[in-house]
Amino acid sequence: MLSVFFNHFSLGLLFGFLGLQFLAEAKPQGVLEKLFTLPGANVVEPSLEGEGVLYVATLEGELFKVNGTVKTLFLDLTKKTANGSERGLIGFALHPNFSNVSLPGYGKFYVHYSHSELSESSFDHVAVVSEFSASSTKLNKADPKSERVLLKIPQPQGNHNGGDLEFGPDGFLYIALGDGGAAHDVGSKHTKGIGNAQDKTNLLGKILRIDVQGVPYKIPPTNPFAKSQGAERKEIFAYGLRNPYRFNFDEGKIWAGDVGQHRWEELDVVELGGNYGWPFREGFQESERLKAKGSQSYINPVLVYPNPKVGKSIIGGQFYKGKRHKQYIGKYVFGDFYSDYLFVLIAGNKFLEDKKLKVGSQLTDIARDKNGNLYFTTLGGDVLRL
After folding, report:
1. Which of 64, 175, 293, 365 has the fewest CB atoms below 10 angstroms from its CB?
2. Is 364 a member of any domain?
């Protein structure tokens, strides 16, 4: 996702190959409401019951259940989670039936984290996607011994890990994975000539889709390569993505922010079997490094904006459907890790930087509750609501 990250113990230090400087924290202002502070906040997931309860994960590996301003440690993965660069606890999703005792998936939730102890020779770390269960009928704490590992994906470098986990309206789990790191999808452990993102035998640079009701999971029968007799990975839903760090569903469509190299940030509507061009293309432009052989068909972005003029790391957002702020109803709200202000899609491929929506710190996630309100996390620790 981002070219840099910092950890909870040393908020003034930034990691990453670009060597960028610390962004001074500014206080949120305008129409955003600050709910509480949790340093290193990286993922937010509203409770399925409606307003009032949030699940917030820190990059270091702590997952909190927050009721109002009361924070309860729900799960501690700090001993398993690798940090630095863009590693950490980077994805979280509740099963759609998490709070329904009579249905499969009751008390189940899913995490995506970086695990250094599982790393294979010459890889930086392993991305782990696991299922956990809540330990009581009150669903107030997770059972740390309940971990069921679904996927282990070796990561060549510490950046471009993707991260997001989301359940779609079809009940399947969608998983975002970046191209494996470094730059331009080339180098050690990147498929020569086409990169990991175009290599359909490789899970990196993709959005995956799996059915968690399996051992360890099942392949949805409509996945693009579900019936392939070749080496293509059957988990793939879409490919040709550089670092789709945050994505969300709206009315059956997947809206994903794909972080660019250093020319264009892009917003995509991700389709089944879609090829989004990376590493042969960044935004609408041909790549500086790798060239496609023969004719290729790519799905165009909804919009692009220049890096670094507008931002450097797009954060995919949500459509606002709440009642508090009529001017934003039906608008897609997204952001950039390096921008103090949120962006609002106003028509087609046009958007504006809204000075009333100041996050004032490094934006990491955007989520929506059942009432249509939006929630935002920042690595500086602010958890905000629109």
Report:
1. 293
2. no
Contacts with 8 (C-beta within 8 Å, 6 or more apart), sequence order: 39, 40, 58, 59, 60
Residue 358 lies in a domain: no
| Angstrom distance (rounded) from CA 259 to CA 58 | 21
What CATH number corresponds to the domain at position 275? 2.120.10.30
Residue 29 lies in a domain: no
Farthest-apart Cα atoms in the chain, separation: 58
Radius of gyration of the chain (CA): 19
Distance CA 347, CA 146 (A): 46
Pairing mode, strands 382-385 and 108-115: unpaired
The two beta strands, 341-347 and 350-358, are antiparallel
The 264-270 sheet, strands edge to edge:
246-250, 253-258, 264-270, 303-306
Q: Encode pLDDT of 79-97 as tens digits.
A: 999 898 899 999 999 999 9
Residue at 28 is within a domain:
no
Dist CA 79 CA 90 (whole Å): 15
Q: If you search the block for the tokens 């629109």, which residue do you land on?
A: 386
Other Cβ atoms within 10 Å of 148 Cβ, number: 14
Q: Hunting for tokens 């011994």 — which residue is that?
A: 145
CB of 358 closer than 8 Å to CB of 376 = no
Question: What sign does the CA torsion over 376, 336, 18, 181 have?
Answer: positive
Which residue range is the domain that position 94 belongs to?
36-313
Q: Pick the more confident residue, 321 or 29.
A: 321
Block residue for tokens 């799996």? 210
Residue 33 bridge partners (DSSP): 385
* Cα-based angle 109, 132, 118 (whole degrees, multiple of 5): 120
pLDDT at 43: 96
- The pTM (predicted TM-score) of the whole model is 0.92
